[in-house]
Amino acid sequence: MIKLTEINKSEALRYIGGGKVDMNDKMNALLKICEKEILETATPKYLYKKIPLKDSGLIIGKSIEQHLKDCDEAVLICATIGSETDKLLRTASVTDMAKAVVLDAMASVAVEQVMQEVDEIIAKENPDKFLTWRFSPGYGDYPIELQEKFLRILDAPRKIGLCTNDNSILTPTKSVTAITGISEKPIEKRRKGCAGCNLKETCKFRKSGERCEF
Amino acid sequence: MNFNDLLKKDYILLDGAMGTMLQKNGLKLGEIPETLNITHPQLITDIHREYIKAGADIVYSNTFGANSYKMKDSGYTVDELIGSAVKNAKNATAGKALVALDIGPVGKLLEPAGSMSFDEAYNYFKEEILAGKDADIIVFETFTDLLEVKAGVLAAKENCDKPILVSMTFEENGRTFAGVSVASAALTLTGLGVNALGVNCSLGPDELKPIVEEFTKWTSLPIIVKPNAGLPDPNSNTYNVGPREFSRSIGEIADLGTVKIVGGCCGTTPDYIKALKKVVENKKYKSAQIEKDTAVCSGTTAVEINQPRIIGERINPTGKKLFKQALINNDIDYILSQAVSQVKAGADILDVNVGLPEIDEKQMMVRVIKSLQAVVDVPLQIDSTKPDVLESALRIYNGKPIVNSVNGEEKSLNSVLPLIKKYGASVIGLTLDENGIPKTAEGRFNIAKKIVERANAFGIPSNDVYIDCLTLTVSAEQEGCIETLKALRRVKKELGCKTCLGVSNISFGLPNRSLINHIFLTMALEEGLDLPIINPNDEDMTGTVRAYKVLANIDKNSTDFINAYNEIKTEKPKIISPRASIEHAIINGLKGEASSLTEKALESKDAMEIVNGELIPALDKVGADFEANKIFLPQLIQSANVAQVCFEVIKKHLTKTNNAPVSKGKIILATVKGDIHDIGKNIVKVLLDNYGYTVIDLGRDVAPELIIETAIKQDIKLIGLSALMTTTLKSMEDTIALARKTPELQNLDGSSKCIFFVGGAVLTHDYAMKIGADYYCKDAKESVDTAKKVFGN
């Protein structure tokens, strides 16, 4: 079980945008309140499973083929911070939109923090292997519709209450699915970069001259 | 043999896991277990047979996921899969055991967490139930959403007459993934009239024990316990509790009482059932004393009526101009904010009344109940005079609600009470009938008695009927108050029912109403009033209830009282600095100051002068700072919220002076069909609101048809659509296309009446133009600029 003890606030601010803004006391106080509420509400849950890639039906498109080209196996991962967080966000949207924006960003950061912890668990379980970085449906040309298959293989609806809707949107919304390749030999370092990203035209980080660090 | 015969036994044995047995027999990764019913019928029958040999009285068919959503890629129909599954099970029983049609969750989340509607879920279940017509029992298992399983139970009740078993899956914190508490599950399912209820999966027997114990406090129905074989190892998928330990633990759980139906879930095999049989074989069933028999609940929270509980009365258009306007404009957020503020002020339950001649009450009631349950946890009281409105709301309500109300008239008794029984609600009984309100306590008591007797005849227990002895206006009938209180006392004492009263009626026509109201409330509490229906935002009224609970030794150690008032003392009085201006307040996010300053400004200035001369320029300045990256988005929104407070003050002023409210134009906003991320749309809404536009917010996951219908009805010029995901851009395109071909939305010259602006993470200007939008807005600020351009203001 993963328990979050803090939320990376500067990361949350980056999600909100406006990276060079001066902080004031009011904003700091808002961040603190929101962090507390997210930590109280989030119920992090995750699943992962090592699978052979051959005949898995999961290699669709150039992006993932390139990404996993040195790998015979991969780990499927999914994580969520639960549906109560969605309720918290909905309530804030009705009563205090400023808070809702901060909560929303913090909830996204929280899921990412859970995924990072899962990365570490997987790395520890595969000490002699080489791992790619995490790749999610929706990156590059990797179809977002595959999320449903990921969840089915992981038995996620039953085990952690994570589903998709008819438009391949994860529910609860603050959730992630991903695949990490496992290789016997060192993996050629490829920068993640914007070139292969399907959000590159609209990305708010790129617009402000930053990167999302993906 | 049928289920009733089985109930004569001390304990009924269920089977163990199907999935575990299939994996042992070589089920492959990603293979759909339900298809084995057709490809390997003998294997399935053999597994059932093993369980029956081990002692199972009931076996679950291999149909956990056999709904048409999950089976869409299986190559078989639900009819084929379930038909063969039930046949395989029947082949194994040979009259020695019953076959339960096993139904699991659909596999996608219901609104509001997901986008599946109640009716969609109902239809999946109905299809399964009809396909399983040869089964003996219907069992719903592993559910985590109470409303989803309610859809299933209703589908079963309305399409077959088989016994219904329900077990839900709880985590160690005593809640399901969807936040459902044991109390809520027990109250709701007992009310719906299932035959047995309980827990399965997720945990081993020892971890489930406290959860089962909680069940015994809330229901007297037979409890089902079907735990996993302990906890799983994530890598090997093996479980840590063996058959002997497992069955011993279940024996201990049975000692809690009321537990009657036992078996095993993931990781258990025929060996476990064999061991379990040995444990319960010579054990006598015992029932536990139910502790909490008078309560209502939402999906997450139960409220026991064992002390005065406040019902908030503010969600009601009667006598409220702004509320009426909100209903007509479909402004659900206004209603939601009323709900949240009442809960914050101390309401335990909220009354919901949306009756207004200008609107479709049924549609609105369903929409408001759904929206309320998405943001507040308190139970609701469904308030309508129309049985069809009540029934629609009762269907989709998550939990056990109160219905307001039934009365002593034959017509009312015969139309409302059957609904209360069917949906397992509580009901308020008004002591009036065909002849009006009796003047005497005696007359009202007699009607109360009649209502309770009739309810009992329908199978509704007395503790689900709350009697309202009716408050009359004391300035008109001064002797009436004492009669009301006398009737209340008799109802409590002689009928043993809980009581409620709308309190504030008492003071109509008198000065200092608040004083009369809270003294009357005090008197009624002393006579035993359980459910005062009041305005919780009125500090005197809420305070009276809190103080009463201290003095009557209900609020032990004055804990709640101290919690409620500790913070108030520390709040500093508002001091407005002499140099303060509306602009200063908006830029610095000072809500309290802004409202007093606006009130002051209204004494000397015209409303529009304040809007255009002070509010808008201040907002523009903040907007420019945001664009220049000088402030964060939340700060922009905070300023907008302050402006909103100013607008509220101005609106109230105008409504009072009977001027039309300020509006610079009406705009529809919606997150399109299939998309449930609505934060972007909500930000746009706040900004537009505060620039003086009237926003009709249709919410998220909105069908094109509703958008078009609203545009026609409200004569809308500007529509904003939001979509976050690539997968839902199509809905955006569909909505615009539908508008373009709807004749009512075209001008005589063939041009379009509606202008669309669109936004969302994956949109680009080019794409927006391609799908026929008029404007692409990269952020909320640009939406405001677009609105200014379109309306020329």
Would you spell out the secondary-structure blueprint of this structure?
The complex is a heterodimer of chains A (214) and B (793).
Chain A: H1 9-16, H2 25-41, E1 45-52, H3 62-67, E2 73-80, H4 83-95, H5 97-125, E3 130-131, H6 147-154, H7 156-160, E4 163-164, E5 170-171, E6 175-183, H8 204-207
Antiparallel strand pairs in A: 1-2, 2-6, 3-6, 4-5
Helix pairs in contact in A: 1-5, 2-5, 4-5
Chain B: H1 3-7, E1 12-13, H2 19-24, H3 36-39, H4 41-54, E2 58-60, H5 78-93, E3 98-103, H6 118-131, E4 137-143, H7 146-159, E5 164-168, H8 182-192, E6 196-200, H9 205-218, E7 223-226, H10 243-254, E8 259-262, H11 270-281, E9 295-298, E10 302-304, E11 311-315, H12 321-328, H13 332-345, E12 349-352, H14 361-375, E13 380-383, H15 387-396, E14 399-400, E15 402-407, H16 410-423, E16 426-430, H17 441-457, E17 465-468, H18 480-495, E18 498-502, H19 513-527, E19 531-534, H20 539-551, H21 559-570, H22 582-588, H23 591-604, H24 607-627, H25 633-656, E20 666-671, H26 679-690, E21 694-697, H27 704-714, E22 718-722, H28 729-740, E23 755-759, H29 765-770, E24 775-776, H30 780-791
Helix pairs in contact in B: 4-5, 4-11, 5-6, 6-7, 7-8, 8-9, 9-10, 10-11, 13-14, 14-15, 15-16, 17-18, 18-19, 19-20, 22-24, 22-25, 23-25, 24-25, 25-26, 26-30, 27-28
